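ugh ok fine here u go
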Amino acid sequence: MTPGLLPLLLLLLAGPPAVQPAPPTCYSRMLSLSREVTGDARRLQAMEPSEACVRYLPRLYLDIHNYCVLAKMRDFVASPQCWKVAQVDALKDKVRKLYTIMNSFCRRDLVFLSDDCDALEYPVPVTTVLPGRQR
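structure:
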C-alpha cells in the first residue's frame, strides 16, 4: 500500500465529518419561543395552582402569524394577576422577550397571515392525517 493511500483510507473508514446545523434564523427563533411560551402557559394552567390567581390569567395561545398576537402578548404581560408568583413572572419574561424579538429584531422576517383575534382565544386543534389514510 502506498504511504499516501493509508491516511485517505483511514478518513474514509472514520465516516463523514460531523455536520454543524445551520444557526437559528430570526423566524425559527420566534417560532420555537412562541411554542415554548404556549406550552409553558398550558402546563401552568393545567397543574393544580398553588396560587388561585393562575385560574384568572388570560389564556395564552400564540400564533406568530396572527397580527392579534402582539396585542395578546401586551395584555398578558400587563395583566395584574399573580404579581410575585415565580412561574408566572418567568412566563411573562419569556413573553416580553418574544415580543421584543418580533417587534424589533425580526420585524422584517415576520409575515402576518391573519388578524383573527378569536383564533387566539379558541385555537382550532391541529389534526394530522397520514398520507393514504384519507377517506
